[in-house]
Design goal:
heterotrimer, A: about 400 residues, mainly alpha, 15 helices, B: mainly alpha, Helix Hairpins
Chain lengths: ~400, ~100, ~170
C-alpha cells in the first residue's frame, strides 16, 4: 500500500502500528483513529472555507467590473485572514431579553449542519469519510438541520425582524426541499443506488447531466433556494428586511453564519459535481487506456473533484450576482405551481424510460433519455408561453367603461 | 452487537412512561402533543429493535416503523392545525379552558 | 463494556434526560427543542441497530418537519402569560404514579422473559436491507397495500390540515 495509491488506509495502518506499540487496546485505538480522521476532514473543510471567502469576493468583483481586494498580500490572498481578525476582535453583544443558550447555539448549529455533509462527500475513490448506503437522503437530512438552526437563531434574537426573516427563510427551505428530493431521486434511479460512490461509478459511461439535464436544472434551482442565496434571498435582503434572521448577530457569530453559507454553497457545488458531472471520475472510459492510468490516482481524482465542485460553486455565484431578487409569494408560487409538478413529471419519465430502454445499446439509451428531457422541456416552455400570453391579453384588455363615463362621452 | 434486546425494550418502556406522564399532566395542548410524539417514538424503537433481533431478513418491523412515521406526521399536522384554529377563536391553548361542550 | 454498549448507554441517557426535560420544562419553546434532542438520540439508536434508512428518515421527517411544525405552532400561539405559572396540572403526582406503575410492570415483563436477553445475530452479508425494504414496500405479496393506504392517509391529512388552519373569515 503505497501512500500515493491509498493514502487513508496507509496512514491508518501506520497509526495503528504506532499506537499498538504504545500498548493501547484495539477498540480505543479505532476510536482515536476515527477522531483524528474527523478532525483532519473538518480542518480541511474550514481551511477551504477561508479560501472561499477570497474566491467569493474576487468573483463578485469581476462580475461587477471592478478588481476586488488586491492590497493585502498578492492578489488579496491575505484578505480573509484580515476579515477573521476583524470579526474576532469585535465586541460580543447578546441582545437584552435574548435566550442566551439558544442565541449562542444558532451559529454553531448552522455551521454544524454544513460540516456533517463533508462526511459523505467523495473526494476520490479511496478518500472519503464514509460510504453511506443512504447518502442521498443524508443530504436532505442535513438540510433539515440547517432549517432548525435558522429558527433557533431567528427566535432567540428577540427581534421582530429576525423572527419574520426566520419564518420566511424556513418556509422557503421547507418548500424547496420537495423538488430537491424529487430531483435527487433521478440520479438514484439512473444509478440504482443511493450511495454517492455508486452514483459516481455509474457515471463512468455517461454523465447524468447529459442523461437528464432537467434534473440538473431542478436540483440547481432548489439548491440555490435551500442555500438562501440570491435570487431567493428575500430573507436577508438589506433593503427589505435588514439582514433577516441574523440581524442581531455580530462578530464571529455572524462570521460563522457567513462562512457556513459559503461552505454550504461550495458543498452543494460538490454535490452537483458528484450527482450530475461524474464526481471524481467520469472521463468516459479514458482512464482505462494505459497512458492515462494516472487518472486513477486518488490525489488526481481529489483535484478533479475539487475543480468540478469549484465550477459548480462558480455557477451558483454567477446566478447570484446576475439576477434580481424574487418576491416571497412569487418564490413560493414558483415552487409549488411550477417546480414540483415539473420535477414529478421528469421523475415519472425517467423511471419509465429506465425500464423501457433497457435493451438498447449505450448510445440509444443516452439519446432516448436526452430526447425525452428535451421534449418535456419544450412542452413546459410552450405551456409557460401560452400562460404568459393569456396573462398579457388579460392585462391589455381595456377596462370596462362605466355607465357614467359613457354618458359623458356621448 | 453485544447489547441484549431487553435494554432496548426497557429504554422504550421508559420513554413511553415519560410520554404518558407528559400527556396526562400538562395543561398546554401543544405540550400534550409533545408527549404523544414521545410515545410514538418509543413504539418505533420497539419495532426496530424487534426487527433487528428476530429476523433481519424480513422487513416487517421496518415497514411497520415507516407506517408509524407517516401516521405520526399526519396526526401532528392535523392536531396542530386544530390547535391553531381553536386558538384563533378562543384565544387559548390551555386544554382545560376548551370546554364549550362540557355540561 | 464494548464500544456498542457504551454508545447505547450514552444515547439512552441523552434520550431519557431530554424526554424528562420535554415534559417538565416551563417554556414551551425549550420543550420543543428538547424534543429535537430526544428525536436525534432515537435516530442514533436506529443507526446502532443498523437500520440506516430509518435513521435518516427519522431526522428528515421528525426533526425536519414535525419538530419545526411544533416550533411554528408554539410561536403562533404564544401569549406572554402562558409561559409563567405552573405548566403542569395540580394533581401531577397521579400521572407520575401511573407512569411509574406502567414502567415497573413493563420492566418486570421484559426481565421475566428469557427470550428477551438474546444478543443480535450478525446480518448475513448477502442480505441488502435497503433493497429488501424497497421491494417490501412495493411488492404485491408484501406491503404495497399499507403503503398505498398510508399515502391516502397523508393526502387526507394534508387536505384536512390546510382546510382547518385556513382563515375563513376573509
Amino acid at each position: 500500500m503505497l501512500f500515493l495509491n491509498d493514502p487513508i488506509n496507509f496512514i491508518s495502518g501506520w497509526l495503528r502500528g504506532l499506537l499498538t506499540g504504545w500498548g493501547l487496546p484495539g477498540g480505543l485505538m479505532t476510536v482515536i483513529i476515527y477522531f483524528i480522521g474527523i478532525t483532519v476532514l473538518i480542518v480541511f473543510a474550514m481551511t477551504l472555507d477561508i479560501l472561499l471567502v477570497w474566491v467569493e469576493r474576487k468573483v463578485v468583483a469581476r462580475f461587477q467590473d471592478r478588481l476586488g481586494p488586491n492590497r493585502i498580500g498578492p492578489f488579496g490572498l491575505i484578505q480573509p485572514f484580515a476579515d477573521i481578525i476583524k470579526l474576532i476582535i469585535k465586541e460580543d453583544i447578546t441582545p437584552a431579553g435574548a435566550d442566551k443558550l439558544l442565541y449562542n447555539m444558532g451559529p454553531v448549529l448552522a455551521i454544524a449542519s454544513v460540516i456533517v455533509l463533508w462526511a459523505i462527500l467523495p473526494l476520490s475513490a479511496k478518500i472519503f469519510g464514509v460510504d453511506l448506503n443512504v447518502a442521498v437522503l443524508y443530504l436532505v437530512a442535513a438540510g433539515a438541520l440547517g432549517t432548525l438552526s435558522i429558527i433557533v437563531g431567528g427566535w432567540a434574537s428577540n427581534n421582530k425582524y429576525a423572527l419574520l426573516g426566520a419564518f420566511r427563510m424556513v418556509a422557503n427551505m421547507i418548500s424547496y426541499e420537495i423538488p430537491m428530493v424529487v430531483a435527487l431521486l433521478i440520479p438514484t434511479i439512473l444509478a440504482n443506488t443511493m450511495s454517492v460512490q455508486g452514483i459516481t461509478q455509474a457515471q463512468s459511461g455517461m454523465w447524468f447531466a447529459i442523461l437528464s439535464p432537467l434534473a440538473l436544472i431542478i436540483f440547481l434551482i432548489s439548491a440555490i433556494a435551500e442555500l438562501g442565496r440570491s435570487p431567493f434571498d428575500l430573507n436577508e435582503a438589506e433593503s427589505e428586511i435588514v439582514a433577516g434572521f441574523h440581524i442581531e448577530y455580530t462578530g464571529m457569530k455572524f462570521g460563522l453564519f457567513y462562512a457556513g453559507e459559503l461552505l454550504h454553497a461550495f458543498t452543494f457545488g460538490g454535490f452537483i459535481a458528484v450527482l450530475f458531472f461524474g464526481g471524481y471520475g467520469g472521463f468516459f472510459g479514458l482512464e482505462k487506456i494505459g497512458f492515462f492510468s494516472w487518472l486513477n490516482n486518488p490525489f488526481v481524482q481529489a483535484v478533479v473533484f475539487l475543480a468540478k465542485a469549484m465550477f459548480g460553486y462558480w455557477v451558483i455565484m454567477w446566478i447570484k450576482y446576475s439576477m434580481p431578487r424574487i418576491r416571497i409569494d412569487h418564490m413560493l408560487g414558483f415552487n409549488w405551481k411550477f417546480l414540483t409538478p415539473l420535477a414529478l413529471v421528469v421523475l415519472v419519465n425517467t423511471a419509465i424510460l429506465s425500464k423501457v430502454l433497457v435493451g438498447l445499446p449505450n448510445w440509444g439509451y443516452v439519446l432516448g433519455m436526452l430526447f425525452s428531457n428535451i421534449v418535456i422541456g419544450f412542452i413546459t416552455v410552450e405551456i409557460l408561453r401560452a400562460y404568459g400570453r393569456k396573462q398579457r391579453k388579460a392585462e391589455a384588455k381595456p377596462a370596462p367603461q362605466s355607465a357614467h363615463n359613457q354618458e359623458q362621452a356621448a | 452487537m453485544s447489547i441484549p434486546l431487553s435494554w432496548y425494550l426497557i429504554l422504550a418502556a421508559a420513554l413511553f412512561a415519560i410520554g404518558l406522564f407528559g400527556v396526562l399532566s400538562r395543561k398546554n395542548a401543544i405540550a400534550i402533543l409533545l408527549g404523544v410524539e414521545l410515545m410514538l417514538n418509543a413504539v418505533n424503537i420497539n419495532l426496530v429493535a424487534f426487527w433487528r433481533y428476530m429476523d433481519p431478513a424480513k422487513m416487517t418491523g421496518q415497514v411497520f416503523a415507516i407506517i408509524v412515521f407517516a401516521v405520526a406526521a399526519a396526526e401532528v399536522a392535523v392536531g396542530l392545525a386544530l390547535i391553531i384554529s381553536v386558538y384563533r377563536r378562543r384565544k387559548t391553548v390551555v386544554a382545560d379552558e376548551i370546554d364549550l361542550m362540557k355540561w | 463494556m464494548t464500544a456498542d454498549q457504551i454508545i447505547f448507554i450514552l444515547c439512552a441517557v441523552v434520550i431519557i434526560v431530554s424526554a424528562l426535560m420535554v415534559v417538565t420544562t416551563r417554556k414551551l419553546i425549550h420543550a420543543a427543542l428538547w424534543l429535537v434532542a430526544a428525536l436525534f438520540g432515537v435516530a442514533i439508536l436506529y443507526a446502532v441497530l443498523q437500520a440506516s434508512f430509518l435513521a435518516v428518515v427519522q431526522v428528515v421527517v421528525y426533526i425536519g418537519a414535525i419538530a419545526i411544525l411544533f416550533i411554528f405552532a408554539v410561536m403562533l400561539t404564544r401569549r406572554e402569560m402562558l409561559d409563567k405559572g405552573a405548566q403542569t396540572r395540580s394533581n401531577w403526582w397521579l400521572p407520575a404514579l401511573l407512569g411509574l406503575l406502567i414502567l415497573t410492570g413493563l420492566v418486570f415483563l421484559i426481565i421475566g422473559q428469557p427470550a428477551f436477553s438474546r444478543t443480535a445475530s450478525e446480518i448475513p452479508a448477502d442480505v441488502d436491507t435497503l433493497r429488501n425494504l424497497g421491494t417490501a414496500l412495493v411488492s404485491p405479496d408484501a406491503f404495497v397495500l399499507p403503503f398505498e393506504v398510508a399515502s391516502v392517509l397523508l393526502l387526507a391529512a394534508l387536505v384536512g390540515a390546510v382546510y382547518i388552519a385556513s382563515d375563513k373569515k376573509k
